[in-house]
Amino acid sequence: MHDIRFAIRQLFKEPRFTAVALLALALGIGANTAIFSVVDSVLLKPLPFPQPEQLVALGAIDVRVAQTERSDPISLPNFSDLRAHNRSFAFVAVHRPAAAALSGEGEPQSLRAEHVSAEFFDVLGIRPALGRTFQRAEEAPGGGPDGLTAVLSDAFWQRQFKGDRAILGRKLILDGQPFTVVGVMPPPFQYPINSDPAEVYITSALDAVSTDGTKPPTESRGSYSWIGSARLKPGVSFAQGLAEVRTVSAALEKQYPDSNAHFWMTIAPLRRDLIGDVSTALYVLFGAVACVLLIASANVANLLLARAIVRGKEMALRSALGASRARIFRQLLTESVLLSAIGGALGLLLAIWGIDLLVALIPQNIPRISNVHLDGVVLAFTLLVSLGTGIVFGLAPAMYASRLDLRSALNDSTRATGGAARSHHGLRNALVISEVALALILLIGAGLLLQSFARLSRVDPGVQPERLLTAFVALPSAAYPKPENIVTFYDQLLPRLRALPGVASASAVFPLPLSGSNMTFIFDIKERPRPKGEQASCPMRIAASDYFHTMGIPLRRGRVFDARDHFKSNPVVVVNEKFVEEQFPGEEVIGKKIQPGIGDGAGPICEIVGVVANVKHKSLRNAFTSEIYLPEAQVPFDVNYLVVRTNTSHPSTLTAAVRAEVARLNSGVPLTRTRVFDEYLMRSLTAPRFNALLLSIFAGVALVLTAIGIYGVMAYSVAQRRQEIGIRMALGAQKQDVLRLVIGGGMKLTALGVFIGLGAAFGLTRLLGNMLYGVKPFDGPTMIAVALLLASIAMLACWLPARRAAGSNPLIALREQ
Q: How far lies 373's CA from each of 35, 41, 378, 687, in Å?
């Protein structure tokens, strides 16, 4: 306690030193705490399910490509076969996201739904808070004894029904069909574990059979649209589960070569599958803030070292009066740890504000990002970082002061003290070199990400995004049971939308470019069919008439969909340029025949009637892929995105008019996800913008701290060498000689730090490979530009004390003792 009280007095005694040190530490520790809270919540915390280590994701891969490729969804029949032959898993389940139109409960609304198999909740190990979950019998067409059934999320139950416990057994009209509510999930549960979880869960009975008795596309063996998961039995290893899945897949390949050749099921840890590709970016940012903390610590260590040299006589007197080296060492280390603890407390306050800012900036599709908060783990991390930082940057000054030579320190001669100080210039210079190297690495990383973001933002998406309003429509299957009914709905709706004041054109499509939705179908070319299992695949889009004109997608050859393409006419398709390049290089493609789907999922033979320009459908950073467009009038789909091109600069002003036209046709059809198309473009840029912005902020802080560190070292060096500089000037040295002497010393340290930093950057920038677009990790111009920027800042930091030294009076300097 005596040491602590004395340390507090010392901090108040030198307010400028204390303020600078605390500011550097608060920035470094606060940034580390904020980023760690995100890393801990997203990456480190186990999944919020019982025995999460037993959970695996079930998917499909093409065994002809690398096994490390992330798996795709599986088909419903393949899942059923695996479940029937399963020996290694306690439970196996599939699910797929969907939209469910709720009617009869006030205003119609579209709910986020999940179609799930019976054991979905058993896989996750979650029991309902009210009622029960699904039974295997309820997967049959028409459902089980209670008909079609549904389980509600707690959030939806509370919002829509105010937590009414009489909800069990109540009928809800979803997509025009009655569903019996059989359960409510507990409050903490949400799935998917992101910011957009399902509100209602319904069985896969709707996917078992269509209203006319035929299998829907979702039950085709060649339709890979279901997300699988499983729970390993106790005592069964991951390798055993993987071996069983491969055995079943090999058997299915032999039995169903049309759809299963080369496409095998596989498993992966569910945690890794849910987190996806965000771990690299978060760990890179965490490494960046760690570098900022190291630079801040180096600065504080330099300050404490300079302070220890100034306090040399004080420490010598203490030693002369009987204080042991251990006692002096403890006192100084107590001061540094106290300083760091206060800096950590201030950093924690910054982190509270910083976490809110991070959550607002981070892409909301990152799992569990909404759960980021300060908890015991984060507080323990902050405490550990604070104490560790205080010990690390306090060791060198404490060791120096505790080993002072009494005779030299008690001598009044400045030269003696200066000689002792110069003996530790090597350590201070090493700290500056380290700061320069770390700052250079961060600046290069920021430069690469900024350049990548700039190039990505200039990418042509293939559509004209200006003045486009989009909205999602899900037609209730009960109200539109037949394909002809769906066609009639859009035949009536689209002319109404085109007639609205301010509307230039209108159409419909599914999936919408950059919306995150996708449909992939296997296809064969009629003129040159491939052997079974060798068919190609590509994304498929279903578009209404006038779609390409509305979206601004140029026609290259042939024609687009028009009135000739209706439900009873010959099937046609439009393909993109990439499709022609891959499937018909150097050939005339118009008139060629293709067949979407194979086996039990095969569609009618279609004629290619047009070629359109390529469009970025998945994201702006992904390369163009082959695309097949089918006309909505021939392949009606019950979910669609309306696209409306307006004559106004604010398309959202037409939202009410579009909603009114939909309601006039059917008041039970909700219009949701109404957005200006620019929002989808911005969403595709959110993650790159966040990475570039945050790393640039950290690099800027590192640059400022490094400049302060260089300035501090050079200013202290000048102060220690005032007599030497005075003698040089008295003997004829000019101001430019003094400037060259001081600046040259500082630039030597900078050059060495730049050299070390460039070497380290060549290795570390590889971590940014997956985060870059159009820029290589070893981009020479970026590295050179960053090195010159850092050198310029360092020169300025050296010039300021050099100018002061060159302007000093040599007579005054020589008179000082």
A: 11, 8, 8, 21
